[in-house]
User: What shape does this take?
Amino acid sequence: MSSYLIVTHQTALSGELKDKVSALVAGDPAAEFSLLVPEAPGSTFTWEGETVDVARQRAEAAKTALEETTRARVVRTAVGGPDPLQAITEELRTHPDYATLVICTFPPGISRWLKMDLVHRAERKFGRRVIHVVAERKTVKPVPAGYHSITAYLTVSDGTKALDFYTRAFGAQVTRRLLGPGGKLMHAEFRIGDSVVMLSDEFPQGGTPSPRSLAGASGSLFLYVPDVDTAFKRAIDAGCQATMPPADMFWGDRFGRLVDPFGHHWGLATHKEDLTPAEIDKRAQAVMAHAPAA
Assistant: This one.
């Protein structure tokens, strides 16, 4: 029975790694595999523990994928420090029975591990067989799936309460939340309809105070809904304050405005008429003709 230590990170779910493991399993169905995922080096935008969590998630995702697609027996997952050679050293110190290392990297010119000559250094240092798998870097869309070109990003005074409130008031579905130092919400995302809204707690030292701290807001969110009157009532019942009840507007929407408890202003609308620009202009002139003088 062969024993393999797979060392990978961003390539953990690559097709090339799956193909190699599948070939190894075909040659020895009783082979055992372990996954070692070193942390990615941190940056000024990460916080303690975040890179470890990412590595752990990659390891578990790769374990599931290899077991399901290659029938491999993955007996262990581990997370190592950001230096991959040192991470391998620590793993072999506690689990010395691996006969072969499988190191999966991006191609030369892209891979940080190849720039540090990891494959050859591992061969020389550990005296074990090393299989090098090169995973092609897939083309990444500039706008990720499920997002639009522009995404609203809200700053609030209590992110956790805000997420709960938006769930109740607007039917939001929270899709991501990341906690930072002191339990503050560093980043969160929720979906309403087909759109994503991002959110974080305020960090005044970083230049992002909330509307409460500013005693006002400089913008608003515009939300289309199937039934504006029903949605407006739901938001009011949840704790929003109405600034303009829903009414039929000259541009073809039924539209109302409100403000949430965190100081953000919302416009809610249901589109009722498809009008040409000329029709909208004509209606606007009629409305302004009857408007009181400023």
